[in-house]
């Protein structure tokens, strides 16, 4: 399975010699994925199509049976009907699940 590492970088400027100086500290956060050779994807592999959703008491749980992280950028019936409470860019871990706080409409 893939492993996710967060790489945090912070640039802090040195103490200024003058009194009237504007200083900015910069911080960046990068996602780094380590993928072992044993799970190198082929061009025909489509892990995003294997992601499943399970309804439970009006809430939704995403299940990922693949060894890859899957980032979900959008969730809804169509582009104009986004699922309320869904946060963009959530990641479903490899061989794991992710309960969402989004509330589903009642079944018909």
Automatic annotation (TrEMBL):
One of its GO terms (biological process) is cell wall organization. Residues 63-102 form the Pili assembly chaperone C-terminal domain. It is found in: Periplasm. Transmembrane segments: none annotated. GO terms for cellular component: outer membrane-bounded periplasmic space. Pfam families: PapD_C, PapD_N. Keywords: Chaperone, Fimbrium biogenesis, Immunoglobulin domain, Periplasm, Signal. Residues 1-39 form the Pili assembly chaperone N-terminal domain. Belongs to the periplasmic pilus chaperone family. PANTHER family: FIMBRIAL CHAPARONE PROTEIN (PTHR30251:SF5), PILUS ASSEMBLY CHAPERONE (PTHR30251). This is Fimbria/pilus periplasmic chaperone.
């Amino acid at each position: 399975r893939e492993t996710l590492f967060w790489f945090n970088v912070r640039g802090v400027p040195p103490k200024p010699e003058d009194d009237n100086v504007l200083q900015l500290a910069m911080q960046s956060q990068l996602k780094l994925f380590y993928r072992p050779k044993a799970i190198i994807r082929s061009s025909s592999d489509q892990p995003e199509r294997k992601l499943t959703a399970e309804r439970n008491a009006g809430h939704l749980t995403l299940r990922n049976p693949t060894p890859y992280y899957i980032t979900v950028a959008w969730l809804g019936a169509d582009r104009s009907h986004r699922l309320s409470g869904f946060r963009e860019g959530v990641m479903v871990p490899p061989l794991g699940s992710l309960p969402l706080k989004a509330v589903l409409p009642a079944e018909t």
